[in-house]
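User: Now give one protein:

AI:
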Amino acid sequence: MKKLPENMIATHVNVNDETIEGMRHENLPILGLMFDPEDSFEKDEFNQLYFDKLMNIRLLGAFLDASKMITDVELTRNEVFGLVVGNEARGISDDLKKNITERFKIPGNGEAESLNVGVALGISLFHLYNKQYNNNNV
């Protein structure tokens, strides 16, 4: 298993290849989890997202056909939210789509059919962090 940055703690490790699939920050309300909600082995994590929705945590989702740009998502400082991006082949599962409270699309040039999930996540986090902590759009 690779070493994580300071203040990050592994929460989920793949049993087959020991890659980190989930992590959280030691002090800040930051959690990252990678899983396929249609895989029955990982239903507990999927159910946790339903629980989070019931606990009034906004779930933001990246969609190609969303009408709102990520730069138009409003956040307050220190607001806790969930961020959902789907994989390149299937996108976000139908079950999870039902629980997303706000859809956005990522700005770009050209006609990309989809973005790599890591790229989509990085761009989304960059914009949301700047919106939340620097109070600006980049």
